[in-house]
Amino acid sequence: MTDTFLSNCPAAPVPDGPGEGTGCEPALSAIRALPSEALDRLAARWLLGLGLRPHGRAEGRRVPPTYVAEAAADPGCRVLARVLLRRNALQAHHVDTFLGALSRSRVATGILATAGPVAPEAIRLAQALRRPRIRLVSGAAWVLELAEARAGVVRGSQDAWLLDPSCLLDPEAHAAASGPSRRNGQRW
């Protein structure tokens, strides 16, 4: 089941190349400052872009947020996705802690995204795991995935990636802010 999803999701990120992370910090800084509800909406849009169906938070704890999803192509394939909003490098102990959460939840696939870099030790640990599998996503790679998924990150001026706050409004607030909607020429 999980092998189908993982075939499109490597266990560890491609290391940031020269200039790859350039311009990502404005978006990452804005993401770190998001309120909990807006981060939940951003994560849901990102997971949808990865071909997953998000089901909300896995745990009541606020930090770090962990989301439950299932593969759209394989509804029996559950995935946990955890987001670490840190500037410092994601370390091997973060992978180990997430491994414990996956084991307790009996989920064989996880995504661990960070708003910073990923330490080489964390990459080696994630690559060494066979079950459960953990895909690591560095901050720069996450910004690119968010942009590709149209999850609220857009290219700004001077090649900087920016957070588009209008994408993160709750649906009612977004409808109210954008004015009356029209459907078939009528207001509703």
Overview of this structure, please?
The protein is α/β, with parallel strands linked by helices and 188 residues long. The chain has helices at residues 2-7, 25-32, 36-49, 92-105, 120-128, 139-148, 171-177; strands spanning 52-57, 66-71, 78-84, 109-114, 133-137, 153-155, 161-163, 182-183, 186-187. It has a single domain (2-12, 21-182), classed as Trna Endonuclease, Chain: A, domain 1. It is 36% helix and 21% strand. The strands form three sheets. It has a five-stranded mixed β-sheet, sandwiched between helices. Strands 6-7 form a two-stranded antiparallel sheet. The protein has a two-stranded antiparallel ribbon with strand order 8-9. A hairpin with an 8-residue loop joins strand 1 (52-57) and strand 2 (66-71). Helix 4 runs parallel beside helix 5. The chain is globular and about 45 Å long.
- The average pLDDT score comes to 78
Number of domains: 1
> Structural class from helices and strands?
alpha/beta
Q: Please tell me the CATH architecture by its name.
A: 3-Layer(aba) Sandwich
Q: Looking across the biggest beta sheet, what order are the strands in? A: 1-2-3-4-5
Compute the number of strand runs: 9
The main pleated sheet reads as: 5 strands, mixed
Rg, nearest Å: 17 Å
Furnish the topology, listing elements before pairings:
Blueprint: H1 2-7, H2 25-32, H3 36-49, E1 52-57, E2 66-71, E3 78-84, H4 92-105, E4 109-114, H5 120-128, E5 133-137, H6 139-148, E6 153-155, E7 161-163, H7 171-177, E8 182-183, E9 186-187
Parallel strand pairs: 3-4, 4-5
Antiparallel strand pairs: 1-2, 2-3, 6-7, 8-9
Helix pairs in contact: 4-5
